[in-house]
User: What shape does this take?
Amino acid sequence: MSEPADPAPTPADPSVVGTYPPGPGPWRALGVLAAMAGAVWFLAGRVETGEDDTIGRVGRLEVTARLVECPEQFPQLGAYRYTYTVRYEVLQVHRQDPEGRYRLQPGASIYVGHYKPWMPRDQIKDADWGADPLGGKLTQLVRGEVHRLALDYELQDLAPSGVLDYLYPPDTNRFFAVWANPTSL
Assistant: This one.
């Protein structure tokens, strides 16, 4: 004999239809909000300032500045190694010039020469520069980014090779980037 077929499903109890289990309570909502606030606080504390062991001891000045003007691509000049001048806007001054020649303030425009600007800063050291520290963690120069810079002046004297300087005015705030690090500001 064959087994009886499953009985047809019966409709649910009409008194239960349309009700849902209770939702999350106020303690759960408070816990979620506290976790979100903690995550935001933790991530905000991870701001990269660009500070490292070297940047605070090289150069005569130290600033955090936004790169305002630079070419999309630096000139390809074969084996010629050059320093290229770009324009920054100072956001914060960490170390003023000890000789008092250049008193920088936030908002000031400065013109900074980067040696071998097409290369990451940790790869630019060569025999032309010598034994002094030169470099940083910056991998490329991109307009709009913020960098922490250890600077020295007398750009023409410090640049190991020639300087390409297409920015005006030519006689103001010309610095040489000894060390450059990226920031997340």
